[in-house]
Design brief:
The chain has 174 residues and is mainly β. It has no helices and 14 strands. The strands form four sheets. The protein has a four-stranded antiparallel β-sheet, with no helix packed on it. It starts with 5 loop residues before the first strand and ends in an 18-residue tail after the last strand.
Amino acid sequence: LDNRGRLWVAGVENGTYMYDFSTHLLTHHAFGHNDPQAMSGSAVNHIFQDSQHQLWFCMGESGVDRYEEQTGYFYNYGVTHYLQGNCVYSACELTDHQLLFVTEKGFSVLNDTTRVFRNFDVKSGVPLSGMTQNALYMTSDGEVFLGGIDGMVSFRAENLNQHQVNYQVFPYRL
């Protein structure tokens, strides 16, 4: 249920359905190739509402969609926006305006104010080579647990650091 008491149900190949208990209306939101108002895909893995009451749809093959209530439009964020992967399994809110999205390749943290992603995977020090579906849990005190092919990790949002790569530079001419 969202903050307005509406039930959102994810479909594997049919988008999503929203049932409004006050009006008894069922609304279907589906994928549309050239429709800017439509969802970016047909497979929805997870539906999440953040503390700002924004609805996020974790898509099976097209990243994550944010539903804009006022316009009825879905806005997509995928690998072209630097999301870690296009298959998004689940999501949670780390802090205000910091959203975590678990993908098949690792996880991404979105600053919802700046719309900038920080990505975490094996290259940045995460000891899991791949994440698995339904393997995200955040405790009431903010510890995050993620499950993957190689096991499980836990961390706190304040301890996430972006891994810096030190490159060796070889001068070509002096």
